[in-house]
Amino acid sequence: MTKIVTENLHLHYGENHALRGINLNILTNKITALIGPSGCGKSTYLKTLNRMNDNVPNVKISGQVLLDSEDIYGGTVDVTKLRKKVGMVFQSPNPFPMSIYDNAAYGLRIHGVKKRLLIDEIVERSLRGAAIWDEVKDRLKTPALALSGGQQQRLCIARTLAVSPEVILMDEPTSALDPISTMKIEELMSELTKQYTVVIVTHNMQQAARISDYTAFFLLGEMIEYDETNRIFAAPKNPRTENYITGRFG
Amino acid sequence: MENSIVRAGKSKAPVETVMNVIFLICGLAAVVSVVLISLYMVFSGAPAIAKIGPLKFLAGQIWNPEASEFGILPLILASVMATGLAVAIAVPAALCVAVFLTHVADKRTAAALLFLIELLAGIPSVVYGLLGAILIVPLVFKAQTALGLPMSGSLLSAAIVLVIMILPTIISVSAAAINAVPKQYNEVSLALGSSKMQSIVHAIIPAAKSGIVSGVVLGVGRAIGETMAVMMVAGNAPIMPELLKPARLLTVGISMEWAYSSGLHREALYGVGLVLFAFIMVINVLLSSILKKGGAKR
User: Fold this and answer.
1) I need a labelling partner for B275 at 20 to 30 A (CA). Which of A6, A167, B40, B235 fits?
2) What pTM does this model have?
3) pLDDT digits (tens, 9 = 90+) for B106-150
């Protein structure tokens, strides 16, 4: 099943033509990895999926992005509802300077959930979902910034899960983490696909090969090749994909 | 040995040592000043308080030096009420302006406004006093007439002038604190589906809390210590303060009578100074410790 359909998506930052006609289908409950050298447009593409590019000055977007067949750039779309449905985890762990509990509860409070018991319940479920509950359950009221980097990133994932998204976008979520924390987050990601559709940008090709079901290769604002991950890595059709994957550039 | 990196003798270059000493002296000068001022205030103010009796001095309701009545409760309450009211009005207003400057106005407007606001902070307080006497006191007259009270300077006028005087400080310090909040907090909040205003209220302002508190502390300090502007609008009668009646603040109490006071009267004015000094110290310590700790706990 297809969750997100992208049709002929173009994006300009002023004079810079950053995305050049992207066509890509993201499948439900799968992990799709976006790979490519720096500046190829993969992060920009990711941010078009929850409209985080809207805040960039001089940005111009054309084409279509359909989420469950609804055009997310349509005139009547409520961006806050879209972002509730399409959550995002950023490159560096960025919990708010509040307690662990308040971080996990942040989105709920924003969306008007008031009942204490309900918040408690969802916070616990989200922290369990992000595989960090056992490490923090006895110190929920302590500052989140006292956690290690890997724990902070899992807390950020929990914070995203708490608003019950359907799609989770991850922008190089492990690039600031040590190998063991990275491993934990990778294990977590395959758990997540039971409930969520995951799109991850990664610089790390082994990571893409390890965790993703589908891979899209971006280069200079174009989507060069998209296929099942094991096919892309075993037998890429496009020579530029092959060059990148085998480490000849990038 | 000519090429060895090990220096013979002293481990530090002489310049380093000299600079260290200079910085140490400068640092000590600040600390010594604070200690000396504190000691001076205590030694010159405490004897009068002891002579009059601490309870009579602090809780006495009548200030009448000719009759040797030295009760400063009206002055204390007037200072506390004027400052409290001024801060209660100024802080929310200043926060709104700071949010406007940092997150709503475009960059050029914000820079121009901030420049003007910082100019306000440099205007001599006597000018604020004049403006208060010309613009605010007559407005309060209307309220007083309507309520059948005599027209006079009042606690309310003093508080309003103080609001205007402390706004620039609180605005510029808060705006700097809000600007220093990492941009990513805003992004994360937006990505969780918050509106722009929700992210300002729930993510950015809490993250800037400790800087905002510093601004408030500076504002409180300025308000409670202000003399000239307040003296020009407050009516200055040493009676128990009410909003629309004249009030004499601690600072005004000292400056009005200093020139002609002598004997116990003059010593009592030292005592008023000591009380004011203690107030500022306690408020600074309390506000910064309580509010900042609150910020860390959340």
Assistant:
1) B235
2) 0.83
3) 999 999 999 999 999 889 999 999 999 999 999 999 999 999 999
Instruction: Centre a 10 Å sphere on the Cβ of residue B18 and count the other Cβ atoms it contains.
Output: 11
Instruction: Output the 3-class SS for A155-211.
Output: HHHHHHHCCCCCEEEEECCCCCCCHHHHHHHHHHHHHHCCCCEEEEECCCHHHHHHH
Confidence of residue B296 (pLDDT cuts 50, 70, 90): very low
Which range, of A51-60, A91-100, A132-141, B109-118, averages the lowest pLDDT? Answer: A51-60
Q: Which of A123, A99, A98, A124 lies closest to A113 in space, CA to CA?
A: A123
**Distance separating alpha carbons of residues B40 and B62, to the nearest angstrom:** 27
Model pLDDT, residue A38:
87
Check whether A208 has a pLDDT greater than 50: yes
Are the beta carbons of A163 and B193 separated by less than 8 Å?
A: yes
Q: What are the chain A neighbours of B208 within 8 Å (beta carbons)?
A: none
Concatenated DSSP letters of A18-57: EEEEEEEEEETT-EEEEE-STTSSHHHHHHHTTTGGGGST
Interface of B with A (CB under 8 A): 182, 184-185, 187-195, 198, 202-203, 206-207, 296-298
Name the token pair of B151.
Answer: 């027209």
Q: Which of B184, B185, B193 sits opposite A110 (nearest CB)?
A: B193
Domain covering B54-297, topology = MetI-like fold (1.10.3720)
In chain B, which residues have their Cβ closer than 8 Å to the Cβ of A107? 192-194
The answer to whether residue A75 scores a pLDDT higher than 50 is yes
- Residue A55 Cα, gap to closest chain B Cα (Å): 9
Place of tokens 């609008």: B233
CB contact under 8 A, B207 and A97: yes
The confidence score (pLDDT) of residue B2 equals 62
Q: Where are the domains of chain B?
A: 54-297
Measure CB to CB from residue A96 to each of B185, B195, B198 and give the nearest one: B185
Q: Is the pLDDT of residue B74 over 50?
A: yes
* Chain A interface residues (partner B, CB cutoff 8 A): 50, 52, 55, 80-84, 87-88, 90, 92, 94, 96-99, 102, 106-107, 109-111, 141, 143, 156, 159-160, 163
B71 band by pLDDT with thresholds 50, 70 and 90: very high
